[in-house]
Design a protein that fits this description.
By secondary structure, the protein is an alpha+beta fold. The protein is built from 6 helices and 8 strands.
Length: about 180
């Protein structure tokens, strides 16, 4: 993905790393957060795989998904080396009730997700702000109000697209195909 609209409460302030964070380059920057609704599902998936791992099985993704016995090489691997750490709720946005999600906010989600805009009441206000401030639609690329608007209304755009041999931001491409 590249850019996505997330619905947030009017007063949402995305967290930033503290001024005394141990990694200098992160100080004052936004903390990347996955979309809030995914935590419970991802944690349950991790827990299920952990139980299978303890039983001597590992998920096979070749073609049809199924469980198979671990190979000798996999036997010596710790589960966290295989699957990573168990998901933490600290890595996800809050999962607010629908009635609290009243405002539109643009996020980059090439990684987990950091905000590209403040929160706005309408998609039109968000698109106007993104266009007027020259917000990044991908790298140093920007987009027009008309290109941002369908993304602000529809939820997301890929980082970039190659069309007719020309690379452009996903916002520019998708915004130009929604007349």
């Amino acid at each position: 993905m590249g850019r996505e609209v997330r619905m947030v409460p009017a007063d949402w302030q995305h967290p930033k790393y503290p001024a005394d964070h141990h990694e200098d380059y992160k100080r004052g920057r936004y903390v990347p957060l996955h979309e809030g609704g995914g935590y419970a599902e991802r944690a349950a998936e991790w827990d299920e795989e952990w139980a299978q791992w303890q039983a001597g099985l590992v998920r096979s993704y070749g073609g049809e998904e199924k469980w198979r016995a671990k190979t000798p090489d996999e036997m010596g691997v710790r589960y966290t080396e295989y699957a990573g750490e168990r998901p933490s709720p600290d890595d996800y946005m809050p999962n607010w009730p629908a009635e609290q999600r009243t405002h539109f906010m643009m996020y980059e989600d090439t990684s987990e997700g950091t905000p590209k805009s403040p929160a706005f009441e309408t998609p039109e206000e968000l698109a106007r702000w993104l266009a007027d401030t020259g917000a990044s639609s991908f790298g140093h690329s920007t987009a027009t109000y008309e290109q941002w608007l369908p993304i602000c209304k529809g939820g997301w755009a890929p980082s970039a697209v190659v069309s007719g041999g020309v690379m452009m931001s996903g916002v520019e491409f998708m915004g130009s195909t929604h007349d």
